[in-house]
Amino acid sequence: MSRTRLVALVVVALVVAAACTTADSDPNRETDSGFIYIDSEGSHICGSMLESYPPQCGEPSLKLLDLDPDSVVALMSPTDPALAPVSWTDYTTTVEGHKGTNGLSDVVLADPVHSDQTGGFLLRVADLGITVGDPVTWPFDLTNLTDASTEMTFVNGQRMEVTLSNGSDELYRWSDGMFFTQAIEQVELAAGATLPFVVTTDPIDLPPGEYTAQAWVTATETSDVVVTWNIEITS
Question: What is the pLDDT of residue 149?
Fold first, then answer.
């Protein structure tokens, strides 16, 4: 059985976190976790995502008054232009902001985002953290920053890769033990367009500590675009 699965759009248990004060003891500053959902009425963080296409924001929800949509990694949107113009995340993330009667303001993403810009492409990875015994979610997106469309060539069904190392020793590779379709596929990435990926893996069998992570998209044209950062596995 594969160690990975795509994150499904299903009704999930409430994940909106209780309010918590920051170091400056501001009682109106809080963090909330959930799915990001953006439609004509603005941005929200949703405790669940209702199963439909496009999906709908499930209750409870909280309006994010000034979230920058471009800051959110791996925003999904309908492939059919006739559908409502909405976007959403296939994973839960955490935001911080000032709580008011109308929602959260001064909104920032609490989860770190790491990136690399090389050869006209921008690759971003949201670091949601790794906890021993828990599944790990890797949200990616790749943006074509050039003025021309690019044909992305994938030599098999694999789309992304993540490794964890300690010094020169590679201790984890996302694709190890997996099987992918053995067919070459080309995906067109228009100028300015973004290609999102979200995968969830089984728990990573490494002890707590700090590791060096590297991530990339496996298309031939983006082989030099590699994100490198330090990541901590916690118990």
Answer: 96
